[in-house]
Amino acid sequence: KDVNKPSRFEVLSDLYESDENVTKGTELDGDYIVVYDDDEDDVNKLNITITDDDGTNADKLFKVVQVDKTDTEKHLTTFVIKTNTDDLDYEKLYKESENGAIFNVTLSIIDGSGTPTTAKTVLRVNDVNEDPKFKKETYTFKIDENVKEATVLGKAEAKDPDIYTPKYGTLYYSLEGDDADKFDINPSTGEISTISNVKYDYETTQEYHFKVVVTD
Known about the structure:
There is one protein chain. By secondary structure, this protein is mainly β. Helix content is 7%, strand content 36%. The chain has a 4-stranded antiparallel beta sheet. β7 and β8 form a beta hairpin. The longest helix has 7 residues. The model has no long low-confidence stretch (mean pLDDT 93).
């Protein structure tokens, strides 16, 4: 009587990773998972499930999919790990998991008899630089004419989604446009001020227009 033999992992990376904000069904970077199974009854019937060792949501965020039909001569089946959601947000996952956007998981091969074979690996979501955005589309500030000393008018504030990656989330403010040279801006805070040697005369000019630029 033929006895069902357990499958075994032939190729498995220690780490699989994906950038955030990719579409559902995107393959994670890492070696293809290659499984050996000697049993004829298990050809094209193997499944690999994901269990999150940290009790978070890796089993919902990712799935393991067979790539091609089983190589019946070598008894090898190839699998790949794919994203299982369109909402792979680094900042959200970083906040929700105790280990950043890193998931320690157990992969379980289930063969035709239900006999499991397990192995551990790590899944990681990488932060991608996202554009900062101003809190408002336009800002209006009032100036008293003939002001002589440099006076703070207000602040143009922007937020950057990349709150956990300083190299992406550090903001720098600047001004551009026809009237930009008549005002100053704090490059770190976005605080806009008048310039002491500029004459602000109501009878000559009632409005000044310029753009605030924020760069991460």
